[in-house]
Design goal:
- The chain is an alpha/beta fold and about 475 residues long.
- It folds into two domains: about 240 residues, Rossmann fold (3-Layer(aba) Sandwich); about 170 residues, Nucleotidyltransferase, domain 5.
- It is about 30% helix and about 20% strand.
- The protein has 17 helices and 17 strands.
- The strands form three sheets. An eight-stranded mixed beta sheet has the order 5-6-7-4-8-9-3-10, with helices on both faces. It has a seven-stranded mixed beta sheet with strand order 11-17-14-13-12-15-16, sandwiched between helices.
- Strand 12 and strand 13 form a beta hairpin.
- Helix 2 packs across helix 3 and helix 13 crosses helix 15.
Amino acid sequence: MARQTLSNKTEYEWNPGEANPKQKKFFESRKLYTGYGGAKGGGKTWAVRTKALLGAYNYPGIRILVMRKTYPELQSNHIEPMLKMIQPELASYNGALHSIYFENGSLIHFGHWSGENSELEYNGQEYDWIFLDEATQFTWRTFQFLGGLLRGVNEFPKRMYITCNPGGVGHRWVKRLFIDKEYITGRDNPEENEDPNDYLFIPATVEDNTALLQSSPAYVRNLAQMPENLRKAYRYGDWDSLGGNYFPEFSDAIHVVEPFKIPENWPRYRAFDYGLDMFACAWFAVDESGRSYLYREYSKPNLIVQEAAKAMLTHTLPGENIQVTFAPPDMWNRQKDTGKTMAEIFMECGVPIVKADNNRVQGHMLMKEQFAKRQDGKPSMLVFRTCQQTIDDIKDIQADERNPNDCARDPHEVTHRVDAVRYYCISRVVPAETAAESARTYYDDDDDDTENYDDYMTGGVLTSSYLTYGGR
């Protein structure tokens, strides 16, 4: 029940209806982060709408953000139903600003997330409550960024409410925080630690939503007809039955190593993905056995082509001899305004680049091959722990629902660094030469200890000497 007194002293009461016991726990939670859901049909969307309106009615001046992945989802699941729930005397909706303005000074803003560009839109904004609806559709970085918007000098306690089902790009972080309750603690900087007391999860299934069972009795049967992994996830809220990530074989224990000094004789390479929304570059080194090490990463949005090339050079240390820089094929598309290709601009900036194959399925399959263990028990590719953003993206990126052999292209913000690794894996690299191979001398005689004529004339085995162009 909510009461609101208007400026003309007229008092209104609003009764949204009876909440079920799980929804009441959601309403009553005073934790910094409250999670609700698990199975489908648990009444999550109604709980978000109602909690947001109760807050706006009862706390004059409160600022509330309701976030979904896309605007059509907001329109159908929140905006239209909420406009039917409120009385015109109490509030008005501004469609251009996607906001409900209340007579008592409260605000509910409806936002959708379109990747890194949304950070520019929301940077600097302040909210008292944030509702992240269907949180597993959002990345860990998005969750962290939105948490930074919980601020302001007013007296309202700052809180975030999330609803969720298993699966999706955010499955891993939601499960860690709210299901497994594995928190980051013990770091030297206390600000980086997570307080277990800040988190509460309220599991719910369709049985908790009696209103849905009464209005749609066939809903449970529909869930029961799904494939087993989906049925366990959506019918019973089983978080172990569904992950959806494309690289389930990738793990910190197997693929992530502590940084070390790379020997000078190891060939080094770069690979990058470029777009105005994100420039992502990765540095690789190859040892004598042909094992690759991803040892450095760099990414930044909103860089024009020459800024991206200069950033690549800046983050390549003096003395690093980069054999080849692999680039996406669209770098050779001519620009309408200048007639130049982006590859030419990179060249003018001192970065020759080589066109990588853009076959997505083959490239991602080759990444899987690189992550597979070899006979010595180690995979063909290892990643320095300092490349944390690339590690997170490899763990989070999902399989394409229409083509399970390929990675999903949405959300786009997790694809850039993965694409940089893909361009490297699909390109040809050579292992480091041993000291003996580097010192080999060739003679033009018949000595049995020297290279034979055919090898001498054809160049012999492919070595890094074939790839000496490219500079830094």
